[in-house]
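>> Question from a student workshop board

For tomorrow's exercise we were told to take the sequence and the ligand below, predict the bound structure, and bring the output to class. My setup keeps failing. Could a helper post the expected result so I can at least see what it should look like? The ligand is magnesium ion.
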Amino acid sequence: MQRLLAVASGKGGVGKSVLTANLGLALARLGKTVVLVDLDLGASNLHTCLGIRNRNPGLGSLVWKQEKSLASLLVETGQERLWLIPGDSLLPGTANLDWGTKRRVLKEMARLPADFVLLDLGAGSSYNVVDFYLAASQGLLVINPEITSVLNAYSFLKTAAFRVLLSAFPPKAEERAEVLAFAGAKTEGSGSSFLAFAEELAGRFPGKADLALASLRSLRPQVILNRAKAPEDADLGYRLRDISRKNLGIELGFSGFLLEDEGVGRSIAARQPLLALDPASPFSRAVQALASRIAISPEPQDRAWFLEAEGLEGLAAEAFT
Ligand SMILES: Nc1ncnc2c1ncn2[C@@H]1O[C@H](COP(=O)(O)OP(=O)(O)OP(=O)(O)O)[C@@H](O)[C@H]1O
Ligand SMILES: [Mg+2]
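>> Workshop helper replied:
Here is what the output should look like for this input. Compare the format with yours to find the bug.
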């Protein structure tokens, strides 16, 4: 079964695109067929990491219905079993895709003939980003050893938890109003976590909050610490784990510790993934180890329910920031 892997970060410039390109290549070298999708709307540059000129139609063509299938947008990368669906200028970053469009794109992705589809997401916590992240069967959250990147990652998780809770209830359900009221009244670091709130809802509305509870519990984002310079840098990852557990009730997994590697800059200048240029470099080795773990890890949670969630559009972003 195809696996959809989303690569996200709260803060920009932490290495999502570099990681997506190299992880995709590492999975392809393990014999998997891999499609990389540039979902960084308005700032797409995944093609650059792969040394491809952006002359091809991209995702915008599907969104504006010039192309009917995502498969017709596949571009060869020059690497065996590795394909790219580029982003394009038809989709400005400010375009807020409606839920129906996101659902159409996600259903098209599920039809791609690939073992892995990797989504290179834009930075931040906008609903375009969070919705694609939640629809994936597995999510990677990239941080750098800087407090700002960790705090933004936490904001991302908070938005994701809120979105999961809302989408687990039908539009106009009274539970949705309760979720909005809870999120609006919550002040940082105090009160119950999102999970404790969902448990409380489950007590008051028997049977109705089961999906919310199960989906929050199964979220399990995998944190990747990139540009690490010292073993102590991992401590920031543990702090993120602790505040996510306490305030959100979300459990994080740790799946990567990628070192600062001057080869990464060189590889971008050379328009090739570092794994192709120098497979023995510290960054390449860590990415290969990550790919091996992902390739043998058990099938993650099926998040198809999120795709079927109704009435997500129209939920004002300002309801919760
Ligand atoms: N492990 C690393 N060692 C050294 N430099 C790195 C490493 N990872 C990323 N970089 C540098 O960080 C820069 C940003 O990387 P990248 O474009 O992948 O980030 P991003 O998260 O995709 O950014 P955006 O949010 O803008 O899409 C790159 O130019 C690269 O040189
Ligand atoms: Mg990027």
